[in-house]
Amino acid sequence: MSTQSAAKAVGWQHYQTLGQHYDKERPGYPVSAVHEIAARAFSLPLSFRRIVDVGCGTGIFTRMLAGALDGSFEICGLEPSSTMIKRAIDATDPDRPIHFLKSTAERLPLSDRTIGGITAAGAAQLFDRTLFYAEAQRVLIENGLLAILQNKRLHDSGFFRSFELFLERFVPGYRTGTYADARGGHSVADFADELASDSRFSNIMTQGWDWPRTFSIDSFEEFASSTIQLKMALTAHGNAIVMKELRSLVYDHCDPVGAINVSYRTELTTAVRNVSN
Fold it and tell me: Which pTM value belongs to this model?
């Protein structure tokens, strides 16, 4: 489990300057994964139908979940980046039962035992999870749901394998299978193992969905520009060198019509707050 201090939690700060690319080409989440979380949420008591989406970014997953819950839950998106949360508010229909607050994952602005479910989609790798899990246990009701979604590039072969090697070459400290973390570096994030070793949670389950995606040359560059890793590479080596290598990589792998076919796996890790804690 992570032992970083919240005071050192700088990983999310990269998103202050990534908002312009983030919404356009970030991968979403399979509808079946969103519906799995919604089905679990519908078993919560009627008086605690409140979901908090922590590290919500621009609200991509928050809006998907709200749609699956069909207006029957109050949903709050929490995000520390002022740039990202502004985009989330601007992109969300004000008539939907969603509101957004500026907050870190390590200090949730919520009262004890008031929340039915907590989600984190593509964000928990950046949390100080020692503090986040403690906060989740504090605010969740008994048997409340914790759901963590993470998109993973399937990189055994093909374009994503070459892209991983590109990242290992240009991103300081990056290795395939690691994620940007709360310290501003990279580390492994195994949510299931962490939660299984935490007596405050039980019923740990991991599910996965594989799905294809096709990028164009331009859309992949937009996607890459939305990642912390490319920002780190540009800082370390300069725009000219990194972008030249990235464009060469993309052109080497696209098909005759300029399409790049890749596969993702979305993993959902769920747990419930123990009654005894």
Answer: 0.91
